[in-house]
Automatic annotation (TrEMBL):
Species this chain originates from: Sphingomonas liriopis
Pfam families, sorted: PhoX (PF05787)
Transmembrane spans: none
Signal sequence, renumbered to the chain: none
Skewed-composition ranges (Polar residues): 786-801
Protein name per its UniProtKB record: PhoX family phosphatase
InterPro entries: PhoX
């Protein structure tokens, strides 16, 4: 080793550079973060001086000949949920090689065009005022970065449109800033084999055309190519919708005909084919929507389409008919009203007022009792299957051909000369209707399945509650008739998220819809409630029941109304559509009206009996304007057997007595009557998050002297946000008080969004996943007219308010002219 002297080494004082790495000097870091101009303005100088002293700052600036740009990010702004926010950055000084916006705080949003000076995003759903931070960065051509920050404060969602006034015009009216497109009308072809619709009563082949009376509806995203589901696609999809009924007069050149009380066979078959369901492909082009007339998945499901039965009633002798001697097959669906969208991409259609289509000749009760016992007549009476001709006199028509029983199946009159088990005639055919029917829209060859575990009744909607992994899901249903019940089905299977993307969709339906427990609701005056199980052998649901001797679980489900009677369920004011708040899981239910409600039969959940002084057509009595009730399950669990309830809103004219009738203090911007359709915005966009948007549709007869039917938007609160209240009812000379539970008055969180054309019902609603287009059905415009006296010309009248053609039920699309989220 060589040893140097101390005089050679000396004292280095740490000034020897031993770091030969390529890491930057602090001067480089400072220069790359801030420009010299920004430094001299004080932004960085104060910080640097505090740490290093002024001499250090001067030295760095003196040696740095590079220059960064000056940037700004705009001032702080305030907006609300669902609004489009634009971030505007500016760059001055040195040329920029790159600019970018990044989010620095708050709920994460998706920035569009983030790598430009102008980025945008949709304000997220929040439940309280929330600040989001953003930073704008510019990088100069020689690599120096300049930054600026800004904030956006987001407030909870509001109904940001001017309420549409009440109207009796023959158009669909929407707020300023929105537009209406007519998408799919009665008679529109759904394949390339039928011609354009003449709309003069001569058209036929409705098995390949849109049916009549468009009703409940769901949108399913379709992959950009092929026929696979794509839950997020808002530009291409399948629209599946019900065709509940017909406006008979407009389907024939001069209205319906008969000779000696006998209907023509061709007319009857046409009317039958107009019922059922449509599956159609739709697409969004440049700024507009249209349906694809030749879509490969397009199809009609009619009263003639083969179906199958699944669940506890499948194979029961209650379903034996000449068509299905083993009770496992069926034929067709009819009077399909509301709907349900399943998480595994299937559609539920629900058979409502099916009983009226069936014929039973005079004396059938006596013959039936003698042949099969009194139980059959008791059950038929409870479902309204009286001795009558049947809707539209269909069974008076001759058979289309020998052995063709498409018409004969609607004659349930028993033939005592045939086998008592019902397999040789159609005495049991009514038992094949009144079910929830599941359809796979992505498989045109699939056979719809009637899900018997969900019970038989006048089904309105069947809506699934929130799905939570490991928890059994619930499905909520109303029985639409005066004084009927509310039901919940809880599956035996716990939810598995992977089932949402399964390819064998009807098999997933088997898993969740064929095994479980059906419950009926009992509501108590204190705002509590119970779900009572419809299980054979429990309590009064047994052979010992004196009113109706239940023989099996199939018997209980087929006659769910009788089971509800036996359990003491609460009689409601026509339970119609159900909807579930996607955030808190509360279930809302429309109770559309009840003409038979009296002062003596009011209760806490159905508290009003009064006279609505309609100015034309005579006054209406009972609960003429209806109300919307809501339930909250105990523990917010779909499996719970108890709940709390209150009434969200009472329908009423704003001029009616606020002390006893207009209990929700409605005004000219939001008064309504007979709520029917009900739907919450999808949780796939901000309208269904935070404080979700709820839509209310009306089917009214009490307020039609003032306005056509309507669609309202609401941001409801939650169960218990109001208080108990006692009112005084007066009707027919009887007067009495009734205590109920009323939610907070809606005020500006409820607004009228749409008014329809003459004599229509507003029904059926869904949206694209992004919430930027909603689909609404206009049912039976001009329903009181005839070919000789047409009372509406819609949709021909939509453009100008007038027209000359026959009216047509149709689906419309509503969008904002600025492309924003509808309603917000």
């Amino acid at each position: 080793m060589t040893i140097q002297s101390l005089s050679t080494i000396g004292y280095d004082d740490g000034d020897i550079d031993t770091n030969t790495s390529g890491n930057p000097h602090i001067g480089d870091l400072i220069a790359s973060r801030y420009s010299r101009r920004q430094t001299l303005r004080g932004g960085l100088s104060a910080m640097t001086a505090a740490v290093f002293g002024g001499a250090m700052l001067t030295a760095c600036d003196k040696d740095d000949t590079r220059r960064a740009a000056t940037v700004t990010a705009g001032g702080a702004v305030t907006t609300s949920t669902g609004k489009t926010v634009t971030l505007n950055g500016t760059v001055t000084g040195a040329a920029a090689s790159a600019t970018v916006w990044t989010q620095t705080s708050g709920p994460i949003v998706s920035l569009a065009n983030a790598a430009t000076t102008t980025a945008s995003f949709t304000a997220p759903a929040v439940t309280a005022s929330t600040v989001l931070g953003f930073q704008f960065t510019s990088t100069s051509t020689d690599g120096l970065r300049s930054v600026a920050d800004t904030t956006v404060t987001v407030t909870p969602a509001t109904l940001d449109f001017t309420a549409v006034p009440k109207s009796l015009a023959d158009v669909v009216a929407v707020p300023s800033g929105y537009q209406v497109t007519v998408l799919y009308r009665l008679g529109d072809p759904i394949n390339g084999t039928v011609g354009a619709f003449a709309n003069d009563g001569t058209d036929t082949t409705y098995s390949a055309r849109a049916g009549d009376h468009h009703d409940g509806m769901s949108y399913f995203g379709l992959a950009a190519s092929g026929n696979a589901p794509d839950a997020g696609n808002s530009s291409r999809g399948l629209l599946v919708l019900n065709h509940e009924n017909i406006t008979q007069a407009y389907l024939h050149p001069n209205g319906a005909t008969s000779s000696g009380g006998v209907r023509p066979t061709a007319e009857v078959l046409k009317e039958m084919e107009c019922h059922g369901v449509s599956v159609i492909e739709i697409t969004r082009g440049t700024g507009s929507w249209s349906y694809v007339a030749t879509g490969s998945l397009n199809r009609r499901i009619t009263p003639f389409t083969p179906t199958s039965f699944s669940g506890p009633v499948a194979g029961s002798s209650l379903l034996f008919t000449a068509y299905s001697p083993t009770g496992v097959a069926g034929r067709g669906t009819i009077n399909n009203c509301a709907n349900g969208t399943m998480p595994w991409n299937t559609y539920l259609t629900n058979e409502e007022n099916w009983a009226g289509y069936f014929r039973r000749d005079t004396g059938d009760n006596a013959r039936r009792t003698a042949a099969v016992g009194a139980k059959s007549t008791v059950a038929f009476a409870r479902y309204g299957l009286s001795e009558r001709t049947g809707n539209y006199g269909w069974t008076t028509a001759a058979a289309p051909a020998a052995g063709d029983t498409r018409i004969a199946k609607f004659n349930a009159t028993i033939d005592p000369t045939k086998a008592a088990n019902g397999i040789e005639d159609f005495r049991n055919e009514p038992n094949q209707y009144g079910w929830v029917v599941e359809i796979d829209p992505f498989d045109a060859a699939s056979v719809p399945r009637k899900r018997t575990a969900l019970g038989r009744m006048n089904h309105e909607g069947c809506v699934v509650g929130r799905t939570v992994p490991g928890v059994r899901p619930a499905f909520y249903m109303g029985d639409d008739a005066q004084n009927e019940y509310v039901y919940k089905f809880v599956s035996s299977a716990t939810w598995a998220a992977a089932d949402a993307t399964a390819t064998n969709r009807l098999a997933i339906g088997d898993k969740y819809l064929d095994t479980g427990t059906l419950y009926v609701a009992k509501l108590d005056a204190d705002g509590s409630g119970q779900w009572l199980p419809l299980v054979f052998g429990q309590g009064p649901l047994a052979a010992s029941n004196a009113t109706y001797a239940f023989a099996s679980q199939a018997d209980v489900l087929t006659h769910a109304r009788l089971a509800g009677d036996a359990l003491g369920a609460t009689r409601m004011d026509r339970p119609e559509w159900t909807a579930v708040n996607p955030v808190n899981g509360e279930m809302y239910l429309t109770l559309t009206n009840n003409a038979s409600r009296t002062v003596a039969t009011t209760d806490a959940a159905n508290p009003r009996a009064y006279t609505d002084p309609k100015t034309t057509g005579g006054a209406t009595n009972g609960n003429a304007n209806g109300h919307i009730i809501r339930f909250r399950e105990t523990g917010d669990s779909s499996e719970s057997l108890t709940f709390t309830w209150d009434i969200y809103a009472f329908g009423a004219g704003s001029d009616l007595n606020p002390a006893n009738i207009n209990l929700s203090n409605l005004d000219a911007t939001n008064d309504f009557s007979s709520p029917d359709g009900l739907w919450f915005a999808r949780p796939s966009n901000v309208a269904g998050q935070g404080t979700p948007l709820m839509w209310i549709e009306t089917d009214d007869g009490a307020y039609t002297d003032v306005t056509n039917c309507m669609l309202l938007a609401a941001i409801p609160g939650s169960v218990g946000d109001g208080a108990a209240r006692t009112i005084t009812n007066s009707l027919g000379g009887a007067t009495a008080s009734q205590t109920t539970r009323i939610g907070k008055a809606p005020g500006t969180t409820l607004k009228r969004f749409l008014v329809g054309p003459k004599e229509c019902e507003i029904t059926g609603i869904d949206s694209t996943p992004d919430g930027r287009a909603i689909f609404v059905n206009i049912q039976h415009p001009g329903e009181n007219g005839s070919p000789a006296s047409i009372t509406s010309n819609w949709p021909q009248s939509q453009a100008t308010g007038t027209g000359s053609g026959r009216p047509r039920s149709a689906t419309i699309v509503i969008t904002k002219t600025d492309g924003g989220i509808v309603g917000l």
